Amino acid sequence: MKADLHVHSKYSKRPSEWVLKKLGCPESFTEPTLLYKTALSRGMSQVTITDHNCIDGCLQIAHLPYTFISEEVTSYFPEDGCKLHVLVHNIDEAKHREILRLRENVYELVSYLNNESIFHALAHPFYSINKKLTVDHFERALLLFKNFEINCARSEEQNACLQAVLSSITELTLNQLIGKHGIMPQHDKPWEKNLISGSDDHSSLTIARGSTQVEGAQDPEDFFQSILHGKAVTHGPSSTPHTLAHNIYSIAYQFYGHKFNLQRYVEHDEVFEILDHFLKLNPHRPSGIFSRFNRFWGQRRMRRASSNGNRSVVELLRTETRKLICDDPHLSEICRNGNGGQRDLDKKWFSVVNRVSNAVLCHSADHIMDSISGANFFNLFNSLGSAGALYSVLAPYFVAFSVHSDDKQFTREVHQAFFSPPDRTGRRKSMNNVAHFTDTFYEVNGVAGTLKKQIRAARRAGKQYTVITCDAESHPNDQLIHNFEPIRVYELSVYPEQKLFFPPFLEMLDYCHKEGFTHIHSATPGPLGLAALAIARILKLPIVGTYHTALPQYAHYLTGDGSVEDLMWKYIVWYYDQMHSVYVPSRATAHELIEKGIPPHKVRIFPRGVDTELFHPSKRNGLLTRNGREGALTLLYVGRVSKEKNLEILVKVFKSLTDATDGIQLVVVGDGPYLPEMREALADKPVHFTGYLEGDRLAGAYASCDLFVFPSTTDTFGNVVLEAQASGIPVVVTDQGGPQENIVPGETGFVVRGNDEESLLRTLQSIMQNTHRLKLMGAAARRYAEKRSFDQAFEQAWELYSETTEHFNGRPIFSDVFASYQGVFQ
Question: Are the CB atoms for 254 and 279 separated by under 8 Å?
């Protein structure tokens, strides 16, 4: 049975509390008499049970002292069937029957309650019971009800907003609402509202979590009259998704424990024992040495049963729970002595579930990666099935976070309606708070470099922007960067610099909820991107994705297998089709994704710019040319030194040029797997390998060269192309990919055919015959780059998030799981 509301008062001479309880569930897990005794043991002196549309629970304890009859009435707005719950207290059986007759129409119900002077209050005013609640409904409720419930099962944000709205209402406000809705309040001074506190305890674990205090109340009538005269003070903490999920686990455990008599296992298995202590009101206590012996024997038997092969999820959960109990003295203490009515059990339970689930996810991830590397797809499907079973185990948290997200969204709508008037265009001001998920941030590549620039731009512009990533090293977090320790890290054999991080999912979900993000931005389709997608769905947030790396083409280059590229494309199209918008760096990339199957209306060009202060012609220092040949034309390549950048073509072309003339040299800035081979191929040529450079040293390298050559056909944007032009040197790019869109052909650079050695050779030969043109093109390149400053591009990109908000309607999240649990709350 579930408890919803606790109201108490204190006499001036001795403590006395009035407890209002709501009980109702598919099965009665806790007898009313036990709830009655528990309430009294927690300082309550008056107890009532407010079942849904039922007073049977109250009648079972009506013969006991310190009780009175109440119920929670389900009613409806007749206009559209929007459901609401009305708490009704201190009634009798005749009034209960009349309430049931009138409850289908909230106007008739409230009129009857007012005429009979029955104390009533609107329960959880911001909770949309049947997904129909709107701000208009809440405004009508302000006209109908004098009393409202601060609900301890709702979030602090929601309760604070309710209090702020109720305290801000004036006579003028009420008159405006009367004119809007045509409803006349039936109580005195309707702009003055009263609050009571409700616990909304669904599992009997948090009885008396909330309370309403009235000094000097002598009996229930006196108590409720004091509330109506504004003499009540509410107490009690707000709730988090941890609290609701803990209740769901408890309800499920109590239900199935009652149905299958699981109590008989508690003395023999510490897993059941910890469930019993965390998820029951009165946990079972082990009887002594025989129970400990049975538990030990059960452990030995289970170890033998689970020592072979790929263990099931249930076995994994057992094993990891045992490890957790052994490693955590506090959990061992709970197993020995019970929970003692601790009020932070929901937090401890979250820690238990998080640590156990991470361990199981590690096991599943290992099997998945082993199956993929060994092409053992039968084992892969088994591993994926295990991951799906774990999803069912974690479902209560998904439901809890989803429910709280609904509440948060409605709270924002109410807050905007009452405290954020629309501007001249009719829009209400909203603040974007973006979480940008990436699996590359501390590495050296263009994506990581761009994200670091975006953080600096966000700081300068005062934007709420956080990069979320994973890395095995303990990088310090700051206001705009949050690094999670991954539960597993895998290196790709064909691309060792690129790592796959398996994130701690529940921790990420909890963090994103607490931070109140309004948008999720995924910069990766890897495990971290899948986590971002799931978090966006659970929290019902719009999610956008950036497609910035040609992963299918990379896969082809690195493996030489076209079927791998095709498989990668199928995954890429599936993943980015889940996004509300797909941000691409170039028109070429947009056309490619659309041709592969991404709907055109989702694709957006993502503005990107360059740091025109760092990269500047004034950074020319002559350092590189002093190490080379006097007066020689200096070519520059900056980027990852790998074959997918088509550097083999650059090597062949440069050899041909140096065989014909000594008036040319090459500078290579960067590192990568192709570097040793490139060094060997150009060992006797005028080439200067600098390794990785950054900051002013990188800017000096750009400005000290004459021509930037970028033969890649797989880049979707090419930050280095803009950096070179900002440094005052023209560029050579191919006609494939995004870089060609970041130059003005013939003015700031040249476009050659991709994968065409002869085209690149002819272009460079032509340039060498007319080198004085390079200075004019370099000046034009600088002017072009100045129009592409990073801060301007960041502001333009930020506006795209608002566009996504306008077109986002929270779609159903995990509808199958949510439906299975939703009955708990209605």
Answer: yes
Task: Tell me the C-alpha distance between 306 and 771, whole Å.
Answer: 74
Residue written as token pair 């019993």: 276
In DSSP terms, which residues pair with 372 in a beta bridge? Answer: none
Cβ atoms 209, 199 nearer than 8 A: yes
Pairing of strands 581-584, 433-437: unpaired
Name, in order, each residue with C-beta under 8 angstroms of 634's C-beta and a sequence gap of 6 or more: 624, 625, 628, 664, 665, 666, 667, 704, 705, 706, 707
CB atoms within 10 A of CB 459: 13
The letter for the amino acid at 40 is L
Token pair belonging to 716: 């979707």
Cβ-based neighbours of 166, under 8 Å, separated by 6 or more: 148, 193, 195
Element (H, E) at 413: helix 377-419
Model confidence at 6, in pLDDT bands (50, 70, 90)?
A: very low
Length of the chain: 826
**Is the four-CA dihedral 64, 66, 72, 73 of positive or negative sign?**
positive
Whether pLDDT at 826 is above 50: no
- Residue 50 has what pLDDT? 80
96, 124 contact by CB (below 8 A): no
For the full predicted model, state whether its pTM sits above 0.85.
no
- Cβ burial 54-88 (10 Å sphere, 16+ → b, else e): bbebbbbbeeeebbbbbbbbbbbbeeeebbbbbbb
CA dist., res. 317 & res. 325, Å (int): 12
**How far apart are the C-alpha atoms of 489 and 404, rounded to whole Å?**
32
C-alpha dist (Å) from residue 438 to 38, 452, 470: 49, 12, 8
Tens-digit pLDDT profile for residues 771-781: 889 999 999 99
Helix (H) or strand (E) holding 464: strand 464-470
Residues 6+ positions from 788 with CB-CB distance below 8 Å: 608, 609, 610, 612, 722, 726, 742
Among residues 784, 386, 745, which one has the least CA distance to residue 610? 784
Q: Could you count the other beta carbons within 10 Å of the beta carbon of residue 150?
A: 23
DSSP-derived secondary structure letter, 442: S
* CA pair distance 50, 68, nearest whole angstrom: 10
Q: Exposed, middle or buried: residue 288 (CB in 10 Å: 0-12, 13-18, 19+)?
A: exposed
CA 277 – CA 271 distance, rounded (Å)? 10
Surface-to-core class of residue 605, CB atoms within 10 Å of its CB (0-12 exposed, 13-18 middle, 19+ buried): middle
Measured at the CA of 288, the angle between CA 285 and CA 292, to 5 degrees, comes to: 95
Q: Report the DSSP beta bridge partners of residue 543.
A: 520
Compute and round to an integer the Cα radius of gyration of the chain: 33
Spatial separation of the C-alpha atoms in residues 154 and 77, rounded to whole Å: 22
Does an H or E element contain 538, and which? helix 527-539
* Encoded tokens for 583: 């941000």
> Is the C-alpha dihedral spanning 591, 593, 599, 605 positive or negative?
negative
- Are 147 and 112 in contact by the 8 Å Cβ rule? The answer is no
Question: What is the Cα–Cα distance from 744 to 750, expressed in whole angstroms?
Answer: 8
Q: pLDDT for 136-164, tens place per residue?
A: 999 999 999 999 999 888 899 999 999 99
Report the C-alpha gap between 445 and 439 in whole angstroms.
12
CA atoms within 13 A on the CB side of 254: 26
